[in-house]
């Protein structure tokens, strides 16, 4: 009962595989060993045994001990072509699917289509969709609670509640001022979010930049520890790639990508657009005193952040402001 999601996904895979009829009518030249098991592809227990490379690789795996009793591992295994191995694996999976459907039809809904017989109940899909919605709602509530805790219950001065609970450093901030980012991460006052694009930027610079290498080592260590105050944000949803801008102005392209991540972060809070002001701050290694010194695309990216209620601050200036607020 607790594995409904697994069975649902397995049934999708099994239904994507070609049937025994499809395999027999493929017109491909197959060895006798594969032909012998084709006729039993829709039976719950294959009479012929085809020793596949994955069987050999998993020979000593304890959970498969009984299943492997039917194989003679001591005899030489026939040399199969790649197509023949795929056929053998497909037949094995189809046969297992038939067995699963016969076993599960008595205890829970299944969706694997038998030859000439359809066993398909959709209550399970509806239940999984409901569970997924519930999980998303719970995630939103958890993030809202984190914001509340960070703003009010971590014994921080009231003045500091005006500072964003989420900080998103860019590649320059990490390469140039890793020590400052570390202090912000260990303060217990902020959650540091590292977008995928920032990690890609560090990876690009690591051969020539010692700061990038130090940052990568630090982030890997923190991610492995499961530090709740510093997290990697995977790309979620579809964002504008702006391939032309990537070639013309990489800094502006990176800022747009970071801004996409910030928008995803604020949307995940489940609150209205007006409530996201001050939620996220991008901390950068760039000096921001004179915006006119930046390229036109970079100025547009900075303005886009302002329009999205996302602040951009120099990491040292942000750190100084935080310290001054006590």
UniProtKB/TrEMBL annotation:
<keyword id="KW-0732">Signal</keyword>
<dbReference type="InterPro" id="IPR002716">
    <property type="entry name" value="PIN_dom"/>
</dbReference>
<keyword id="KW-0175">Coiled coil</keyword>
<feature type="signal peptide">
    <location>
        <begin position="1"/>
        <end position="22"/>
    </location>
</feature>
<feature type="coiled-coil region">
    <location>
        <begin position="124"/>
        <end position="151"/>
    </location>
</feature>
<dbReference type="GO" id="GO:0000184">
    <property type="term" value="P:nuclear-transcribed mRNA catabolic process, nonsense-mediated decay"/>
</dbReference>
<dbReference type="GO" id="GO:0005737">
    <property type="term" value="C:cytoplasm"/>
</dbReference>
<protein>
    <recommendedName>
        <fullName>Nonsense-mediated mRNA decay factor SMG5</fullName>
    </recommendedName>
</protein>
<keyword id="KW-0866">Nonsense-mediated mRNA decay</keyword>
<dbReference type="InterPro" id="IPR045153">
    <property type="entry name" value="Est1/Ebs1-like"/>
</dbReference>
<keyword id="KW-0539">Nucleus</keyword>
<feature type="domain" description="PIN">
    <location>
        <begin position="165"/>
        <end position="288"/>
    </location>
</feature>
<dbReference type="GO" id="GO:0042162">
    <property type="term" value="F:telomeric DNA binding"/>
</dbReference>
<keyword id="KW-0963">Cytoplasm</keyword>
<dbReference type="InterPro" id="IPR011990">
    <property type="entry name" value="TPR-like_helical_dom_sf"/>
</dbReference>
<dbReference type="GO" id="GO:0070034">
    <property type="term" value="F:telomerase RNA binding"/>
</dbReference>
<dbReference type="GO" id="GO:0005697">
    <property type="term" value="C:telomerase holoenzyme complex"/>
</dbReference>
<dbReference type="Pfam" id="PF13638">
    <property type="entry name" value="PIN_4"/>
</dbReference>
């Amino acid at each position: 009962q607790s594995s409904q999601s697994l069975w649902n996904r397995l049934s999708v895979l099994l239904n994507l595989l070609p049937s025994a009829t499809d395999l027999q009518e493929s017109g491909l030249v197959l060895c006798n060993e594969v032909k012998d098991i084709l006729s039993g592809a829709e039976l719950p227990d294959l009479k012929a045994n085809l020793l596949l490379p994955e069987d050999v690789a998993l020979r000593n795996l304890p959970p498969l001990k009984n299943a492997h009793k039917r194989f003679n591992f001591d005899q030489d295994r026939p040399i199969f072509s790649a197509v023949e191995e795929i056929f053998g694996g497909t037949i094995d999976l189809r046969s297992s699917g038939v067995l699963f459907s016969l076993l599960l039809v008595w205890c829970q809904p299944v969706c694997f289509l038998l030859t000439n017989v359809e066993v398909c109940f959709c209550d399970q899909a509806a239940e999984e969709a409901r569970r997924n919605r519930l999980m998303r709602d719970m995630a939103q509530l958890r993030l809202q609670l984190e914001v509340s805790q960070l703003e009010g219950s971590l014994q921080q001065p009231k003045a500091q509640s005006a500072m964003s609970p989420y900080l998103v450093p860019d590649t320059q901030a990490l390469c140039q001022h890793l020590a400052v980012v570390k202090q912000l991460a260990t303060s217990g006052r902020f959650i540091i979010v590292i977008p995928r694009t920032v990690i890609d930027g560090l990876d690009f610079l690591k051969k020539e930049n010692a700061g990038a290498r130090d940052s990568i080592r630090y982030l890997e260590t923190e991610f492995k520890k499961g530090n709740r105050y510093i997290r990697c944000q995977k790309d979620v949803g579809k964002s504008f790639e702006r391939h032309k801008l990537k070639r013309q102005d990489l800094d502006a392209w990176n800022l747009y990508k970071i801004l996409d991540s910030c928008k995803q972060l604020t949307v995940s809070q489940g609150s209205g657009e007006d409530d996201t002001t001050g939620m996220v701050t991008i901390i950068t290694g760039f000096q921001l005193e004179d915006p006119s010194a930046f390229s036109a695309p970079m100025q547009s990216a900075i303005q886009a952040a302002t329009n999205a209620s996302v602040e951009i601050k120099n990491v040292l200036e942000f750190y100084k402001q935080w310290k001054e607020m006590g």
